[in-house]
Amino acid sequence: MALAVGILVDDATVTIENINYHLEQGKEVEQAILDGAHQIALPALVSTLAICIVFVPMFLLAGIAKFLFIPLAEAVVFAMLASYLLSRTLVPTLAKFWLKKHETRKTAARSFLTRFQESFERRFARFRDHYKSVLNVALGVRPHVRIFCFLPRWRQSALLAFPIGPLPGLGQDFFPSVDGGQINFTCARGQVLASKKRQPSAISSRAPFVRDTCKQLASVVDNIGLPYSGINLAYSTSAPVGPW
Question: Which residue has the higher pLDDT, 229 or 24?
Answer without folding.
Answer: 24
